[in-house]
Amino acid sequence: MSRSHELFEAAQRHIPGGVNSPVRAFRGVGGDPVFFERAEGAYAYDADGKRYVDYVGSWGPMILGHAHPEVLGAVEERMRKGLSFGAPTEVETQMADTVCELVPSMEMVRMVSSGTEATMSALRLARGYTGRDKVVKFEGCYHGHVDSLLVKAGSGALTFGEPNSPGVPAALAELTITLPYNDIAAVRETFAEIGSEIACIIVEPVAGNMNCIPPLPGFLEGLREVCTEHGAVLIFDEVMSGFRVSLGGAQGHFGVTPDLTTLGKVIGGGMPVGAFGGKREIMEHVSPVGPVYQAGTLSGNPIAMAAGLKTLELISEPGFYDRLTATTSELLAGLRERAAAAGVPFTTNQAGAMFGLFFSAEPVTGFDQATACNQEHFKAFFHGMLERGVYLAPSAFEAGFVSIKHGEAEIQATLDAAAEVFAEIAG
Ligand code: PLP
Fold it and tell me: Does ipTM top 0.90?
């Protein structure tokens, strides 16, 4: 019996489902979750000491690879001065300055402790700023477990087939309008009818929670136009795409400027961090300058800031994203080649260093195509790769991530494993 199995049995006694976040439970692929013990560079090691090439990277943050010595050094140095003060520290200003420099649409920023907090706060701010209650989101986009946004959501909510969670009041869900991703005509129609009631559009500028689906040309530009025309706030949820699709996020990559941006994952370098920010005029509505309340005991925690700031410094080095993107492209081209050789219908999506794997003969540009992919093939692929020491996201509806530590050896090992697994799937 594996140590992971024993640990999972023990975990289920006092933790619902044995996990502290649902997708980790492997319900989307079956079997026991792998319990990790440590990780370094591109590799994670499970409780039995087995090594995996890791393409989850803590769901995105570990862009520098695990346990980067300089990030650990920054954390250690800061840690020795005390864990938390609940009072301002200089490192918070350094973080704010860095974020506003890297993401120019962000003129002011407020730090929080998770992506969920960031989107929840951005939503409240958009409502408070406009004095309107309705929000527009897109089917299959996940913005954390915020009540108003847990409507036709992606990620775990999609894996479990419960896009509308019990506990979200119907009266609140009614204020959330969900439209198809990449369908700008639907957005224009909705705004033509009730544009003056809509506070904001929130969108993942590259969808990463129904697997990876980049925006079609004109989609983000269209959202910008509609929001400007109707006085609604455009929120790019870049919790996943920020510092991942490019150094300036998806907005830098596609050249479309939102009013507000939410960040998470990479910005914390593996520590619990999120942020929301944007136009000064809007951000000045946040407490204590303005009336929109928002707060947090551990917001801007100095240790978390130190990890994030060092991460942002290292990813800003010239050539970082060229290399990361090239590695991602090489991985995907290799996978497509091996699937084709085995005769397995398979396609991939990529936006910078974010990728999606789909068991589909057709391109995948929306929610319906993503959910129509061959789930059985995905499960077989996932388990075949896991057995061979490659850790992919345990759900067909999650994006994958490479780190800068993924090199030739890791890509080759992944492709060798994939060739065998595709052959098995082809039968
Ligand atoms: N927004 C997006 C786009 C995400 O991908 C996620 C998490 O995966 C969130 C928000 C929520 O972030 P967190 O899990 O840190 O609350």
Answer: yes
